[in-house]
Specification:
Blueprint: H1 3-9, H2 20-29, E1 34-38, H3 42-49, E2 56-61, H4 68-79
């Protein structure tokens, strides 16, 4: 069984860090456009986010290791945010910012 299958099977056990849901609400309330890019499936992400999922303007999910620069460009276009104005938070470094602008 693949890691993704195991994760999907146990997705109900994955929770946001304490305070994360409130932070997302606060960011959204200030007018910040939230978008989420992940190699994970959108359904898994939405399940973990719960009601916070509705705060996101765009999801770019299912991307491969090398497909994220294209997902970043598409997200910037959909959200009408320039690369210079975007802030990206992640758990891994996979692409330099200059490669997506």
């Amino acid at each position: 069984m693949s890691a993704r299958c195991l994760q999907a099977q146990n997705i109900g056990q994955i929770q946001l860090f304490p305070g994360a849901a409130r932070m997302l609400v606060d960011l959204h309330a200030t007018g910040i456009k939230l978008a989420l890019l992940s190699s994970n499936a959108e359904a898994n992400i939405r399940r973990v986010l719960g009601s916070s999922a509705e705060l996101f303007k765009h999801y770019g999910c299912g991307s491969s290791l090398w497909g994220k620069p294209a997902k970043f460009r598409a997200t910037l276009k959909v959200t009408d945010v320039t690369a210079a104005a975007a802030v990206c938070l992640g758990d891994e470094v996979r692409a330099r910012a200059s490669s997506i602008s």
